[in-house]
Amino acid sequence: MRAEQHDVVVIGGAIAGQTAAWELAQRGFDVVLVEQDMSGRQHGRLGDLMLQVLSRAGELAVRVRQAERYGVLAEFGGVNYSQLVRRRDEVVDYVIGGRPMARLEAAGIRVVAARGRLRASGEVEAGDTLLRGRAVILATGSRPHIPEVPGLEQADFLVPERVLGYYGLPRTMAVLGGGAVGVTFAQVFSRFGVGVTLVERGSRVLEDAEPEVSQAVTQVLQDDGVRVFTGWEGVSIHLAGGQRILDLRQGGNAAAGSVTVDAILVATGRDPAVQDLGLEAAGIQLGPRGVLVDDELRTTASGVWACGDVVGVYHLSHMAEYEARLAAHNVAATLTGQGPPQKVRYAQVPWAYPLDPEVAQVGLREEDARRRGGPVVVGLADFAGLHRAITRGEVRGVVKVVADGEHGRILGVHIVGPRAGELISEASLALRAGLTVHDLAETAHPALALAEALRRAAAAAVQALG
């Protein structure tokens, strides 16, 4: 086995690995990236893009049905799924191009097409090559979590990655999991005319979101024709006449039911991709979510950092990119001895999902803020009174602002509503800058701005301050 010496070895070629490698190469470090799959299809952002294409198609299907309200004569003739697949593939091909790793190679990064495995904290085995690095970054991503439901394996179930490559529409579908991915797929396929049943074992969908957001999203799903079962779980599956019969149980009670569907989508979360990675040999410990790291993204092994889904804090592509940049900065600071390391500040990083209306948030939930101690105030506002929302026919949703009850400093903002993914950027900047609800409430917004709902929520929080 031949050996190579580099400054940094990155294991994993999805968005976290590519971003970390790129950042370090731009700083002048000798970087090698190890990735077995050279297709680029494991790139986290591609999954986001493909889901956004499907979500956009579902949105257009609804708009066509609503067009007559505005005097536009249109008739919804159904979904040409093969054409939608072609559009999806056009977007994907545009993003990854012919050789997805060519950009990295052009930046001077050595790309090794092999499975990376740690032999020690600074040694990575990649095929017939031993890569030694002054630092190692783990960015191996994640894989779908598959619940232990008897009969599931025989049901030829789908996971999000397979749905995105699915070349046909079932008549009926059960979605297991009421997180962001599950509810988005449920809405999209319902809008395509599929009879969708969503099953979530928790008490509500989007359990990580504010209750007001979960309630609004549940109503939206039901308005779109999705049957929503919260507090229920699948206990077994059996086949009959080419269909899947999913047996359900409500919590710990004996209450039972069943749904008969053509397809089952499992969207019950993700597990870190750590199999056969050599963690024990390198002295790297696992935590409850993934690779155990501190607030500088250092693992328990000297000279090894981790970022992205393998850490498991948030399974979001832009969060993986944020962690990768921070890990790259901290590796550079350690290797050069220049500049202090940075610490992760998840509360300052927003997230959004392509539901319709969109869902977005940044900062603390009310529950989390109160748990920290001290007074807390909240302000709520809807979109129903905004002229822009009324004229667009998009009045569903709510904005919630969470602030400390002493000075009014903004602690969190939560939105379900039109263009929430854009509106959250203003809230994110306000939170990062340490602004108060007074600052936001006193900021004038254009009459056509949907962001006026954010200002009104802040004004409601000001009133709550007294």
Describe this structure in words.
- By secondary structure, the chain is an alpha/beta fold.
- The protein folds into 3 domains: 2-43 and 100-143 and 271-344, 3-Layer(bba) Sandwich (FAD/NAD(P)-binding domain), CATH 3.50.50; 153-268, FAD/NAD(P)-binding domain (3-Layer(bba) Sandwich), CATH 3.50.50.60; 349-465, Enolase-like, domain 1, CATH 3.30.390.30.
- It is 33% helix and 25% strand.
- Strands 1, 2, 3, 4, 5, 6 and 16 form a 7-stranded mixed beta sheet that branches.
- Helix 2 packs antiparallel against helix 3 (81-96) and helix 2 runs parallel beside helix 6 (180-191).
- The model has no long low-confidence stretch (mean pLDDT 93).
Structure, briefly:
By secondary structure, the chain is an alpha/beta fold.
Task: Supply the number of helical segments.
Answer: 14
CATH architecture name of the largest domain? 3-Layer(bba) Sandwich
User: CATH topology of the largest domain, what is it called?
Assistant: FAD/NAD(P)-binding domain
Instruction: Supply Rg.
Output: 24 Å
- Beta-strand portion reads 25-35%
The main sheet comes to: 7 strands, mixed
| Tally of domains | 3
Low-confidence runs: none
* Broad shape: globular
Helix/strand class: alpha/beta
Helix content: 25-40%
CATH top level of the largest domain? Alpha Beta
